[in-house]
Amino acid sequence: MDQKKLKTRAEIPEANKWHLEDVFSDNNQWEAEYSHVEKLLEEGKKFEGHLADNADMLISCFEWMDDLSLRIEEVYAYARMRRDEDNRIANYQALTDRAGALAVKVSSAASFVVPELLAMPEGKLKEFRATSTKMELYNHVLDDILRKKEHILSSVEERLLAEVGELAEAPGAIFSMANNADLRFPNIVDESGQEIELTKGNFIQFMESQQQEVRKAAFKTLYGTYEKQRNTWAATLNSSIKSDVFFAKARHYPSALEASLDDDRVPLKVYDSLINTVHEFLPHMHRYIQLRKKALKLSELHMYDIYVPIVPETTMKITYEEAKNMVIEGLRPLGEEYISILEEGFSKSWIDVYENEGKTSGAYSWGTYRAHPYVLLNHQDTLDSMFTLAHEMGHSLHTYLSNRKQPHIYAGYKIFVAEVASTLNESLIMEHLLKKTTDPKILAYLVNHYLEQFRGTIFRQTMFAEFEKKVHLVVEQGGALTADNLSEMYRDLNSVYYGKDVVLDPEIALEWARIPHFYNAFYVYKYATGFSAAIAFARAILEEGQPAVTRYLEFLSGGSSDYPIELLRKAGVDMETPAPVGNALQVFAELVDQLEKLLK
């Protein structure tokens, strides 16, 4: 790929684009389905006030809700993925806005169900569940509703909250538009002296440059651009956090954090234990930072020196085709079934590969129940991009297997377990590469890269999680969030996590302004817990073989048929103890030891 100038969407080869026609053949079919969903909304009126009439009425209502849910997911996913291809296209901005508004209407139309169920005499619901075999499908759903009884409001209040939902999405939508469609970065000079446009997609590539001046220029250019709107970013994030706090209070939760955790039935101690365990292992993180400073022969280690590989001779260029082959080889321990699904994804246009003008940055896996998973990439021909491909296909196979095994109502897995499959893929591929590599320099490079995965996924995401906890607490205690105090809190956390051997460049205090996950509160800690669970699974698969693979594939097929903590426990990983996080960080400590020896 020519990185000198960003390509237009039309210049990207069709073979490297996803095939959204597997969801809707064209926009006309999307419009027809949109209209069908609008008509289905009206059917809810016949159920309202009648759920206690008989079991058949309740079952019909559940079936209506499930059908509505399946259809709105397709309507929204198609519109949003089309928009993500090029955020500047007004038609797809409009489709996405309409789909979002319709999703709120769907939520509102079904808002009577839970309050009406909770108002039903307990004996009647028990009778329905005992006398109708069709009700068995909904046992887990009903149990989950009943456990949240104290947080469910009246029908009128629930409908109002559902309507307010569209307003609550505004901060995230504004951030996404500003960050993806409007933000432009100046050119910087690369290693060969050529001027290249800085983009969010190639930023990390520049941060891995062997020339410190290039890294510094990319760093200062990126944050200098965000700095110009620092107060706007702060106001947008503050609005998002206020929204989180409002909904938590409305539902009678002690805090926004506890409201978020309760959705997955995750105890607060899991979140706090993660932060505490990571703090215990910070001396090993600081040891790694010291090693980095020494290996790079720098008198001062800056925040823009954190990403550069510390074994420069082995910088790897990996094409997309090579990346696919590396992923297949590294994941062979997961068995033939897993590999065949993976190859199907590679060959059947699940993946949108390269960056283009206006395309949403980063990477994700999405999809629909009746079609298949999709993956958005911004591939850059680096080792990191190969691992991103492995990561997102981990999500996709989790989705594929859950969709195949579970009815739609239980197909979607909870976010708490969403990062397990993705990071397990990365871990298995890394273990494969470490075993087959004999060149000490390449081995050192890979160990360093593995350490970076730990740093980026456990340490960095836990730092984000701690930041989220702190900023929500400010709002919950009646305080205000400004660009200044957000930056101060963020800078202080960087100081704690990176230690005294890093120069905290002033620009890093503004990093919070560019993190999209902060608009989906208390999401990022799940990267760290998921990574820890993935390390546990990877070790079991490599040591036990087929029995561990069988347990793992059953976990991937579980969807949301049980609570995430329970699904993991059944597969052999207990996240209610500090052991998985502590054991994963022990691996990190051993890798630091290994790298120290390799670099002597």
Automatic annotation (TrEMBL):
InterPro entries for the chain: OligopepF_N_dom, OligoPept_F_C, Pept_M3A_M3B, Pept_M3A_M3B_dom, Peptidase_M3B
Superkingdom of the organism of origin: Bacteria
EC number: 3.4.24.-
Residue ranges of coiled coil: none
Reported cofactor(s): Zn(2+)
Cofactor note: Binds 1 zinc ion.
Domain Oligopeptidase F N-terminal: 116-185
Keyword terms of this UniProt record: Hydrolase, Metal-binding, Metalloprotease, Protease, Zinc
Domain Peptidase M3A/M3B catalytic per the UniProt entry, residue ranges: 206-585
Record-stated family: Belongs to the peptidase M3B family.
Function in brief: Has oligopeptidase activity and degrades a variety of small bioactive peptides.
Protein's UniProt name: Oligopeptidase F
Organism ancestry: Bacteria, Bacillati, Bacillota, Clostridia, Eubacteriales
